[in-house]
Amino acid sequence: MSRSSQLRILMTTDTVGGVWTYSSSLASSLAAKGADVTLVMMGPRARAGQLEMLRGSRVRLIETDLALEWQDPEGQDLAQARRVLAKLEAGIRPDVIHLNSFREAAFAWRAPVVVVAHSCVNSWGLACRDTSWLGEPKWRRYTERVTAALDTAQAWVCPSQSFHDDIAEIYRPRSRGIVIWNGIGPQGFAGRKQDVIFAAGRIWDRAKNIEVLAAAAPGLDWPVQVAGPADECPSASVTWLGHLPHEVMRAHLRQAAIFASPALYEPFGLSVLEAAAAGCALVLSNIPTFRELWSGAALFVDPTDSKALRRALAGLCTDDRERVRLQRAAFEHSLTYSLTRTTSAYLSLYEELLAVHHAPAPMEVRA
Fold it and tell me: What is the pLDDT of residue 16?
């Protein structure tokens, strides 16, 4: 019998950004090892391509209409969230609560709680140098709830040491935090590449910093393609592909020779990992997370300097030897971040928390 057999896990998720990719992959991997996993969706409903990522798995999906905490900083949906999640816990009777958002950790759960910090509004604002609005009452309440959640949880997890340090500095949690890198399943090295520069990110998200890539694109010999929603196209030199289903995104990555991410803020960067696993040469912003995770396997540039980004991309377009070296280095380094390793780390954490949770209380000694 595997150590995950009979383990019941209630895991929350959302469909905005990389949390869905992370949670659906991890939940499927845990289920494949014998765990009984219920994935509880909050925020916008999943698109057909997202639901396809769970096809063939043993994961049970429950959709709710509960608001995401950063979309509801005033907490108008808080009472309803308490009722819905308490009812789900009573019915599922999970051994572990795995939350991919913060505020729900402060609810009255019976099972031990793990909070995974994928991002937060305060660290986003600091990285983007846009903090004036964080003093508004609704965002102060958001900060108070995140702090309470981190203090209440039995453990909190970050996908990189850099982001762990940010969370510790901002919120000073009383509970302990650990680092578990995100991971993906094995990918075959894609050796046949096209002369394409690829990127991914929402144009309206300042953290992704796609505007700098758009400013760097004119004059490049190779076409620049960007996956992600865009209300308007800021540069005719970029092909805007809109939202792509996960498998279509992977197909583009397997074809592209170069992947660029000039992000100002990235707690981990699953799209970078998938690009590396697909054999893309990486051109990344020189921020702590990327240096931590991809040192020696990427070319780093100042994310505020579009001219430096253009020079780096132009150089790789013409330097076949260096481009191939970086492609191979990125692929080999991507093997460090395997889904198997990630799953094993979470199972070890669950077991540790359950051991503490079920340990008998110390006897009171009376004088």
Answer: 85
Is pTM beyond 0.90? Reply is yes
Q: Which residues of 139-153 are buried (b: 16+ CB within 10 A; e: fewer)?
A: beebbebbbbbbebb
List phi, psi (to 5°) of 261: -140, 100
In this structure, are residues 46 and 27 in contact, taking their beta carbons and an 8 Å threshold?
A: no
Q: How many residues does the chain have?
A: 367
pLDDT of 237 reads 84
Q: What is the pLDDT of residue 360?
A: 66
> Is 194-334 assigned to CATH 3.40.50.2000?
yes
Per-residue pLDDT, 231: 66
Burial class (CB in 10 A: 0-12, 13-18, 19+), 1: exposed
Contact present, 267 and 158 (Cβ < 8 Å): yes
What Å distances lie between residue 175 and 148, 178, 295, 336, 348, CA to CA?
Answer: 10, 10, 30, 28, 18
Q: Rounded distance, CA 139 to CA 119, Å?
A: 15
H-type helices in the chain, by residue range? Answer: 19-32, 48-52, 78-92, 121-127, 137-152, 161-171, 210-216, 246-255, 270-277, 288-294, 306-318, 320-334, 339-358
Q: 211 near 237, Cβ under 8 Å? A: no
Second CATH level (architecture) for the domain 8-184+338-358? 3-Layer(aba) Sandwich (3.40)
Half-sphere exposure of 86 toward its Cβ, with a 13 Å CA cutoff? 9
- Which pLDDT does position 189 carry in this prediction? 72
**Spans in the chain with pLDDT lower than 50:** 1, 367
Chain-centroid distance, C-alpha 47: 18
Express each pLDDT in 150-176 by its tens digit.
999 999 999 999 999 999 999 999 988
Q: What is the CA radius of gyration of the chain?
A: 21
Domain boundaries, the chain: 8-184+338-358, 194-334
d(CA 131, CA 192): 44
At 367 the pLDDT is: 47
